[in-house]
Structures
1.
Amino acid sequence: MGSLTKAAEEGPSAAVDWSDEAVIYVNGVRRVLPDGLAHLTLLQYLRDIGLQGTKLGCGEGGCGACTVMVSCYDQTTKKSQHYAINACLAPLYSLEGMHIITVEGIGDRQRGLHPVQ
């Protein structure tokens, strides 16, 4: 798996370096995914790294307890695209190079809550 090492928002004119590391960004933090996690969903990974706000409800994508926001740069439109996905259904490596925002990423008691919370 290769991933871009520059932020997608830098646009097409930025120099692009490729890496053999699988990388995702969780709440603004770059995380290198080690080999051997193909069996994990995004939800399992988030909870394993200590982000407990994303919950497992039905495990089928119907209840929304595991909803997170995923962002990526669309080369065609030259804009960032944002999607709500069910973390319980998303294979971890399918999100390589993308930015994931969880409920912890939009606010907490120490930094202040976001109005949506």
2.
Amino acid sequence: MANFVLQLPTSNLRSFSVYASSNVECKLGAPMGTGSQSGGPVILELPLDKIRRPLMRTRANDPNKVQELMDSIREIGLQVPIDVLEVEGVYYGFSGCHRYEAHQRLGLPTIRCKVRRGTKETLRHHLR
């Protein structure tokens, strides 16, 4: 299994799709899931301001952990992407709170994400 990173512009991003296949041919812009049996996650570099954080106000991050992550990201970059759910072209982050805050505090415009496609029902389940 191969991973890839797709960097996106930080402005004027509405929505897009990426199609990844085990075949040599790869198509950008094709609807996710078409031609792919698994419809599994893809790794994308997304602008921070395009990721909604619906649970952000429910808890505070550990400032020491955020500082440690900032130091690590400065030195070696982000090692583990955050998990993001894409529903109808909108990105929702439910994990990686410390990594997300570390990127914000470092002034980084984007963050590496493991993006899974979901439905409105999937989103409601995450908000319970």
3.
Amino acid sequence: MSLTSILSAEAIENAVKECQAPDSFSFKKFSQLCGLTSKSPKEVKDVFQILDEDNSGFIEESELKFFLQRFVPGARTLTDAECKGFLSAADDDNDGKIGVEEFLIMVQS
């Protein structure tokens, strides 16, 4: 399964272009632009599984750095500040990683 089987390639491209500048990434804006917010919980969970590169059941800070590259190869990496902000916004149980339910809540809020 690929991200473009769930989200349109054009929407992904537009979302990545919107956050090309360092420290301009906003997960809320990105997920709206790429169409993630309009997807079903199952589709959001499918996206999570694709982003969980090591299949640990969590998206760790090391995986967040390459978040945009999972959508578009060659996209920039997230800055440390963006990774920490993303993690703190989504990590409801403060375990230092984002679980599938936390990801789903963040997409839907």
